[in-house]
Amino acid sequence: MFKYLGLLMFCLQVSVLSAQIQQKSEFSIVEGNEVVSILIDKKDAKVVAIAADILASDVFNITGKKPAVVSKTSKNTAIIIAGTIGKNSLIDKLISSGKIKVSEFENHWERYAIQMVENPTKNIDKALVIVGSDRRGTAYGLLELSRKIGVSPWEWWADVTPEKSENLIISVDNKVSKSPSVKYRGVFLNDEDWGLQRWAALNFEPETGDIGPKTYAKVFELLLRLRANTIWPAMHSSTKPFYSYPENKFVADDYAIVIGTSHAEPMLSNINTEWKHDTMGEYRYDTNSETIKNLFRKRVKETADLEGIYTTGMRGEHDSPMIVGEDDTEAQVKLLEGVITDQRAILKKETKKNPNTIPQAFVPYKEVLNYYQNGLDLPEDITLVWTDDNYGYMRQLSNPEEQTRAGGAGVYYHTSYWGRPHDYLWLNSTNPVLMWEEMSKAFEFQSREIWILNCGDIKPHEYNIELFLDMAWDMDGFDKSTAVKSHMNDWAAREFGKASASKITDVLFENNRLAYIRRPEFMAWSQVEPVTKAGETELTQYHYGDEVSERINSYQNIIETTENLYDKIDEHRKDAFYQLVYYPVIGASKLNQKWLYSFKNKFNAKQGRQSANTLAAQSKAAYKRIEKETNYYNEKLQNGKWNHIMTMAPRFLPVFAQPAVSHVENTEKAHLGLALEGYQMEVNHEVINSYADVLPVFNSYTKSTYFIDVFINGTGTVDWEAKPKADWIKISETKGTLNSNSNIVEKRLWITIDWDKVPKGENKKEAPLGHDFQLIPPSFKVNSAIDFISEGKTTSIGVSVYNPELDTLKNYKGFVEDKGYVSIDAENFTRKKDGNEAKWERLEGIGYTNNVIAALPRTATPTVDIQAILTSSPVLEYDFYTFNFGEAQVNLQVVPTHAPHAGFGVRCAVSIDDADPVIVDFQTFGRSASWKQNVLKNASVQSALQIVNKAGKHTLKIWMVDPGVMIDQVLIDLGGWKASYAFPKETVKK
């Protein structure tokens, strides 16, 4: 009986404790003239005192009153107590007395509890207690209070001024933090030449003339606020090596930041600047290993008592392959194995520890991945740090055997990159949902030990840095793609207030969508290594509504929205808005418009249009706007706090220059010019029945719309009038005046059809059986024209509409052929069926249409056998209708990911109607030409030949072969698709 009574009492105690932990209570940090103190133990880690000081300063910035950070108690009504288990005597007493419970998280990695304790000591009535399982856990707990009082992690780095308040009373939800999802989480300061190093040397830390301890202290504070714990320091030759400033390593230890180094910096050594050829010889392990080992020994000796992650293996200098005596993969593998063996012997000797207890990383980057794939024997306790392909797509992840390794796996990911096919060093142009997708995949494949983000100069990568580190802290909160938009909305609300948060989020999502289609830094159609001149754009200006103009307008919309938002942002948050939203959006928009206007300038100049001169001026104005905003960022913002941080032309590549433009000199008498959608050249008024005197056929099932440009040729004034010859032809404007001396030198007219007035074609059950959409039998086409009248001359532009009355389409809902193709956005499937292990799911915020369809989970078993595909794979079905028949090229555009490991590919299977599925493979290898084009476009397009055996209804089927494939768009080409960068807009029945 007593046994059961004891059990009952234990359950009651647990219930009471649970209720205590879940309850919320109020705690006053500042109320009137009363300000709490923050009690710490001097014997605790330095980072605890640092975090306490940060919190005290945050309180001061809100209230004007600063809590004292003390190490002795006095008579207090209330106090904040912060300490680490085993390092704070008062915390340990509270544990031993049972006033706080720590069994749930004691000896765990970086966890903390926040809870209210009544009468913790005789002279304290109430305490808000932060207790950490280790030194960083305590620091994170203290800085969690900063978050709760409304202080942004970017309060210094982006000048996010907190809201002022006389009193500061918080609601305390007693809680114990979870273990971080990823053990080591941090950033790589890379390509620092263009901003961070110049800013530190010339502005923030001139006494050092470099990125030194003062700068690193600010970086480390940011990392603590973002709950990160690791850094790979700056390593270019413009910056002195991290360990060349002795104080750097002590500042890192004070802030409890773990130092690691990149794939090219073995054993915490910076080869770029620490290797001296004149005294050390050639950097070759096969001929000069002893000198290299001496460098390794020196570094291990000075870091043995500090937290660090030693990068094992070896690459050559300046991010190049390791030099070996034989150009032989087997010899390279053997030499690299010897390097790692020697490095671990050095670790053992200099630290007096077993190497398997020391954090080590192996980064299979570029050629090192090839060595690993060719049988490199890597000790089990070394962490495999997988890399992306430099453009946001993970090259490889752990297979089932690798997932059991003691050292686990990690990720090295880029949002900034210097290299071929083209750099992106200026703006943050990596789509955050793409980053979420790839990190989710890495997490799913058990990469949970180390996550490092190459964020360049930190600015302007602020949002993606926070997203990356928030995911690494708690991946449970990011189970769906929609979590990114929610996260961004919460971020915008925290930084700028709830009233504007959704609009800011929408602007940033649209900016990300446009950058996904083509990064701003890629808009010159040039490449690097070697650097090439600006090339011809792939965007069409005369098909599918004019892709160039559409992109100009899309950016103009977000420019105007951003400028309106800036005007309405509270004054004390304007500088933060400028850094986090305004400059990145305006910069991306104007760099795009600079090139887009130049493309239009050249196109219009070939047609002799006066508007070419205006477009040249608009291109130059866009360049000047970037110049103006960058100067403001550096020289005016925060009274010059950020001078030299922002460079508008990293490496001075062609994309950042003012494009060459053409000028039209036309002294002949003014006359009207016409240019039609679908034709590269203008209408020739002197030739009757010119090839460019008819618009593409209007389709009643897609409600087609086309444009005609009216423009002035020559000098003077031109009056024009457009007269449709049928009442069902609608024109956006029917008359006007163009003047060569004004801004009105051309107009774009939009031609639509009033389908209620168009005569119907023959009523049939089926469509005509034609091989060319332009050769539809006359009974199904209705022809008319628009007369353009100017200066006594009339030019007729043909208008043909396809308007049959087909019984089979009366109640049809789905996609239809238009001009010889069917275009489909993948998320708009007609039906989908789940498979045995996987299913197709929509991911939002990625792809050309901002939605893709992915086969999930990513760890499902690939299905290659055709019969198995038919019976067990998930399938998407799209109903479509054609007016033609014959061979059809099914073009699939997918997100250009890579197979996670050798057991997977990047494949799906397609068929039309009941044909056997045809497997389509999107995998690329190395830095092939197809890979380069894929990453420049963020798209991989492959096709399968199918037969459309008759005009009428059909079904396209897409099966999963490999999980993780993300389908963006589909184009079924029956021979009518013209050149365009993106697939044409959906041809859905309207």
How are the secondary structure elements laid out?
Elements (H helix, E strand, L loop, with lengths): L1 H21 L1 E8 L2 E2 L2 E2 L6 H18 L5 E2 L5 E9 L4 H8 L15 E10 L2 E9 L2 H14 L19 E6 L1 E2 L7 E5 L7 H9 L8 H13 L4 E3 L13 H9 L3 E2 L11 H4 L2 H4 L4 H19 L6 E2 L17 H23 L8 E3 L4 H7 L9 E5 L21 E6 L17 H13 L2 E8 L7 H12 L8 H15 L1 H20 L29 H22 L5 H33 L4 H26 L34 E6 L21 E2 L6 E8 L3 E8 L4 E3 L3 E5 L6 E8 L9 E2 L16 E10 L2 E10 L2 E2 L8 E2 L4 E5 L5 E3 L5 E6 L6 E6 L9 H7 L2 E8 L3 E9 L12 E6 L5 E4 L7 H9 L2 E9 L3 E9 L5 E8 L17
Parallel strand pairs: 3-4, 3-5, 5-7, 10-11, 10-17, 11-12, 13-14, 14-15, 15-16, 16-17, 19-27, 25-28, 29-34
Antiparallel strand pairs: 1-2, 1-8, 6-7, 6-9, 18-20, 20-24, 21-23, 21-26, 22-24, 26-27, 30-40, 31-34, 32-33, 33-40, 34-39, 35-38, 35-40, 36-37, 36-39
Helix pairs in contact: 2-4, 6-7, 10-11, 13-14, 15-16, 16-17, 16-18, 17-18, 18-19
Keywords: Hydrolase, Signal
Pfam family, one: GH115_C
Protein name: Glycosyl hydrolase 115 family protein
Kindly list the characteristics that best describe this protein.
990 residues; 5 domains; 8-stranded parallel beta sheet; globular; 6-stranded mixed beta sheet; Chitobiase, domain 2; disordered N terminus; alpha/beta; 23% strand; 31% helix; TIM Barrel; Methane Monooxygenase Hydroxylase, Chain G, domain 1; 40 strands; 21 helices
